[in-house]
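My current task is to audit a protein record that another person submitted. I have pasted the whole thing underneath without changing anything:
***
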Amino acid sequence: MSGPNAAGIRRHQIAIGAIAIAAAILAVGFATTRSVAAGPDAAPSPQAAGYLPSISDLMIATIQPRHERLWRAEQDGNWEFAAYELGNLHGAFNRLGQAHPTEHDISFPDMIASVTEQPFKELNSAIHSKDTTAFAKAYADLTDACNSCHQALNHGVVDVRVPNRTSASDLNTNNTPRN
């Protein structure tokens, strides 16, 4: 074929080919992006892989809520949940120490263990025997242990307390005196 009609057909075929190639490139790019973003085996970005939450982040996100839920479980007489939260609180402290092996040139795992070991044992015993009086003492001892670490690490402004039924948090954010 020759002439103006042949040239128009040829341009039409080239345009269709270009559109098909562009669509294929977009489809491959879209599929690759989706598989990387959503794929379970996708490697995290270098920034995400190198991110280590601070001690404060881990305390606020994991330790403090479990400390509070442990108390609320006992207050509700839910000893099974109290045991569950005690185990999770202990594990959270262990992970914190693994993530931050030293703080101010002090072995952080050793510091944590030195102040929490006895209260954890006493809490475990109180939970298993469903002894509210022993629980209250052990919980207060654990809370005091937390505050002793805060003092030792020059973070005394972080004052944890035994929650009360009306508070939304166990952190003393309004500087009210201890009970």
Remarks:
- Strands lie at 102-103, 106-107.
